Amino acid sequence: MGHIHGRGVIIGTVDLGGHAGFVWAAYAVAVTVLIGLLCLSLRERSVRRRQLSELEAATGGRRRRRSGGTRS
Amino acid sequence: MHALANPTRFMRLAGAVLPWTVAAAAVFLAAGLWQALVVSPPDYQQGETVRIMYVHVPSAWLSMFIYMVVAAGSASFLIWKHPLADVAAQAAAPIGAAFTAMALATGAIWGQPTWGTWWVWDARLTSVLVLLFLYLGYIALVNAFDDPERGARAGAVLALAGVINIPIIKFSVDWWNTLHQPASLTRLDAPAIHSSMLVPLLLMVAGLFMYFLAVLIIRMQSAMLVRRSRALGRVARGTAGSRA
Q1: Strand partners, B47
Q2: How far does chain A reach from its first CA to its final CA, in angstroms?
């Protein structure tokens, strides 16, 4: 069993014996992949949102200018 | 189901579901990690290295499940031309590739103390490596065409052809003499795993499945934004062309 040193608090050192390096390496790989993919996906969504809003502003602005021109 | 094929309706529902999937992923993963690293016992043969199972096995299962999602989306796109099916397939593929890479890496790290080697070209490991190449090939192919529709069709055909690899992965440990152990949980009789290890394993599976759903929704939202931008760009170009 992994042992928590301390008095039952969640933050502590988990003692995994002589193969601790392998266990921590596997969890580090998993956390890196999961957080990396999440961050990339969130960044891509925000970039796409910004691109769309810029495009909407540009095309909307052109339409407004055109409609303004016909009114004057 | 048919109502969900409407992109606008689906994205409204997906936006509402997203916070719940994120919360469920966080809860299941927190509970699963606590159980996996602290509560569950060491294995009588493998000792503490058995804890690698709690990230390796769920990522391997999800790598195959997500491929089936990609294949189902591809089939739906080719047969019924559902606009969302292609979006879902393309959004799921990078997540599947990430889970496959995670399964291979954690498996190699587990293999060294257990088998005395990082890698061996046995049927299970090789077929999972082929799965990673299928994901990467699919992603490369759908992005290789100027016309997104052609890329989607070519990718969908590749995804469907690659489905043959899924039963090969699953049954490789039964069909061939492999270093990889046979199935412990997905057996027709009772699982060959004690409940003290089964509970953290299932919690991690649930957590990573919810993580997959959350990232899938985020990536589908991105893809829908790209499609709206493309449509808007076409309209703008058409307006400019008609004026010229």
Answers
A1: B43
A2: 80
Residue type for position B217 = I
Using the beta-carbon criterion (under 8 Å), do B215 and A56 form an inter-chain contact?
A: no
Task: Give the model confidence (pLDDT) of B51-80 as tens digits.
Answer: 999 999 999 999 999 999 999 999 999 999
Nearest-Å Rg of the Cα atoms of chain A is 27
The reply to whether residue B51 touches residue A23, judged by beta carbons under 8 angstroms, is: yes
Q: Which residues of A touch B (CB under 8 A)?
A: 1-2, 4, 10, 14, 16-17, 19-20, 22-23, 25-27, 29-30, 33-34, 36-38, 41-42, 44-45, 48-49, 51-52, 55-56, 58-59, 62
pLDDT digits over B3-23, tens only? 556 778 888 898 899 999 999
Q: State ipTM.
A: 0.88
Round to the nearest angstrom and report the end-to-end CA distance of chain B.
Answer: 45
- Chain B residues close to A14, C-beta within 8 Å: 37-38
Chain A interface mutation, best of B18, B34, B37, B210, highest count of A Cβ atoms under 10 Å: B37
DSSP string, B78-112: HHH--HHHHHHHHHHHHHHHHHHHHHHHHHHHHHH
Q: Residue B50: CA atoms inside 13 Å, Cβ hemisphere, count? A: 22
Strand-pairing partners, residue A4, are A14
Q: What is the DSSP string of A12-38?
A: S-EE-GGGHHHHHHHHHHHHHHHHHHH
- Closest A-chain CA to B228: A52
Using CB atoms, pick whichever of B39, B101, B236 lies closest to residue A59.
Answer: B236
Domain ranges across chain B: 62-184+207-230
